[in-house]
Design goal:
Length: 143
């Protein structure tokens, strides 16, 4: 049941990305082009998502546990460190260059465009490379 609802959630997300036009990298890049062909539609998509998320969290956090799990899966750390800042910067740079974020690129794979495939492959390579680097140089935990 858990997998079915996860798939349905992904489907709703993908449909939302498609309907909003966010699978089109030009639309995203135009949002970042404030001095040129600025397109504010991404701000409205994000604003709508924030409203739905805020309402959803208010409902969900009233429960003692999730419907399909034993506990809520929340990050254990609230630290703002180099890894978080570096990853955020890389994400933003990649989004600004390609016009895709991973969430929009996955539904965009259905368009069959080679640029989307190249982007998704680059994301996968980055994830694998990060895991390899973590194994080569494990984080030192202070004692």
């Amino acid at each position: 049941m858990k997998v079915i609802f996860a798939g349905l959630t992904g489907l709703v997300f993908g449909i939302g990305i498609a309907v909003s036009g966010m699978m089109n990298p030009a639309k995203v890049l135009n949002f970042f082009d404030v001095a040129g062909r600025w397109d504010a539609s991404l701000a409205f998509v994000m604003g709508g998502a924030l409203i739905v998320t805020a309402l959803g969290y208010r409902l969900v956090w009233r429960r003692s546990k999730p419907v399909f799990d034993d506990q809520f899966q929340v990050p254990g750390s609230t630290r703002i460190d180099r890894k978080l800042l570096g990853g955020s910067a890389l994400f933003g740079i990649g989004w600004g260059i390609a016009g895709f974020c991973p969430g929009a690129a996955l539904p965009a794979l259905g368009t069959g465009r080679w640029e989307v495939v190249l982007f998704v492959v680059a994301v996968i390579v980055g994830l694998v490379l990060r895991r390899v680097l973590d194994n080569l140089w494990p984080a030192r935990v202070p004692q």
